[in-house]
Description:
alpha/beta; Aldehyde Dehydrogenase, Chain A, domain 2; 23 strands; globular
Amino acid sequence: MEQIGHFINGKRVAGKSGRFADIFNPATGEVQAQVALANSDELNEAISIACAAQVEWAATNPQKRARVMMKFVQLLHRDMDKLAEALSREHGKTIPDAKGDVIRGLEVAEFCMGAPHLLKGEFSEGAGPGIDMHSIRQPLGVVAGITPFNFPAMIPMWKFCPALACGNAFILKPSERDPSVPIMLAELMQEAGLPDGLLNVVNGDKEAVDGILDHQDIMAIGFVGSTAIAEYVYSRGCANGKRVQCFGGAKNHMLIMPDADLDQAVDALIGAGYGAAGERCMAVSVAIPVGEDTADRLMEKLTPRVENLKIAPYTAGDDADFGPLVTQDAYNRVKGYIDAGVKEGAKLVVDGRDFSMQGYENGFFIGGCLFDNVTKDMSIYKEEIFGPVLSVVRTQNYEEGLDLAMSHEYGNGVAIFTRDGDTARDFASRINIGMVGVNVPIPVPLAYYTFGGWKRSGFGDLNQHGPDGFRFYTRTKTITSRWPSGIKEGAEFSIPTMN
Length: 499
């Protein structure tokens, strides 16, 4: 059976700990490979190598670093099919969805080609008598990313592309559920011209995570995952004096106003609610039709669409809307939420729990599920399910729907579907959620804006990619200079001022 190790100092290396985790084929339920779980010695070796390599990389001019990103983007296009197939094989998402995963990471690499401009400081001539002042952005050193299973290409690139473009070295600890693509990305970075030791992929579990959080040479950490783990990473990392950005769970709402184009709204709910089997932090999991008539018309159009979703392994190509969940544990968790929703009194209009496919009976498939008459005290409303489950919460008016989204503990993404500009503008202005869509169901910002949720969906002051990515992976140094011709004789005992 194939064993996947680590990527350290520019090459693949076998694991030394003797510990492994199984990698499943989500469509068949079979173990298809094993991944090594690093111990502290392996992690420390990777960090030591990164520290040594980073010094020269930081001294490399930003334009040369940007050229590595340019070549990397070319290689991503070249190997798109290969990356998508490997991603789908371990994750279970469809090939078109896997390509989208790669492309959204590629777009961040494209943005990082602008590193020479994004790293420019400021200059003030004559800030005081004979005094000039300027600021520069410098890399932090060795930084790390801890990334989730659901986007094994996109989120690692959201982390390591800006970090490397800024002159840092990077330690990536990807999910052990689908580790192949992160290592393939590291190999492409090497082919693009990245020197050895600057991008190291260390597979592992909590031992590796804690090692990253505690290591004195790791200066910053980016994390994406569940809120409980995000809080743990944030608190422990900050306690150790590190710069930390953590993004956690979500419960994304979509308001459907009475004047909305319901056909467009249903299309949006089907794609955003069930794409990737709902295993997206930006998935729409709560639909809020405003008014009973809107709710009834929405359910009439939505129900048959959910019933006719095409569920299949990724090998079915474009004939599949979504595939299986990533593991048996994920399947059990989602099914448990559906059972709880029924027990709590929600109306299960479409029940996908008994979905089965001939030849794939042991796969982690679950059909699309649709709940109606969900209330905010139910677990299926309060908690992130991370599966193909959409809850419809009926509200009587706009203010009730707005309050529902605003009062939820998560604040990752939200959307409103309406034809009325005043309503849309009011919604976008008042909502206390980080990413807002107006007639857009999954409002993931493009690479030159920043991605980040509010409330318990995000921890830290700076978001992912965009300008914040460069701010997060650098620190500002300000230099005040004066030359002998402008210096008065004698010591100055009062604090310097511009008077």
